[in-house]
Amino acid sequence: MLAQAYDNWELVLVDDGSTVTELLGMLPRVTARDQRITSAKLGKHEGISAASNHGLHLPVGSGSLFLIMMTFSSPMRFFHVVRLLQKYPEADLIYSDEDKLGDNGFEAPVFKPDWSPIFSVL
């Protein structure tokens, strides 16, 4: 995640009431690694929507990219997103394919269409 080709990003981690001791101990260490990383606590578990909504109010940048827990991020991810935003500045939404990484490698690809009548980016 930290080794991105495009380096003008901010990572916001939102703890939605986790009780996992290892995770709670890791958050301060992760935020101390890089000034672009901040964290926040909801105090109680309210689900991914509440955590996402809370996190949307914290970054200082002009856009947001949602990554769910355990997301593997290519070093070129932010570069490609910014390149698309420069090419299509009127875009409200950019989305990408996804895949699940299991013990034997990538195992459940989800290929999204180039164009969707519901989620059109052009």
What is the percent of helical residues?
25-40%
Kindly name the structural category.
alpha+beta
Globular, elongated, flat, extended or rod-shaped: what is the shape? globular
Uncertain ranges: none
What is the compact description of this entry?
The protein has 122 residues and is α+β, with helices and mostly antiparallel strands. The chain has 3 helices and 4 strands.
Can you tag this structure with a few keywords?
two-stranded antiparallel sheet, single chain, alpha+beta, 122 residues, globular
Topology:
Layout: E1 11-15, H1 21-33, E2 37-41, H2 48-56, H3 77-87, E3 101-102, E4 105-106
Task: Give your account of this protein's structure.
By secondary structure, the chain is an alpha+beta fold. The chain has one domain. The chain has 3 helices and 4 strands, in the order E-H-E-H-H-E-E. The strands form 2 sheets. A two-stranded parallel sheet has the order 1-2. The chain is globular and about 40 Å long. The model has no long low-confidence stretch (mean pLDDT 81).
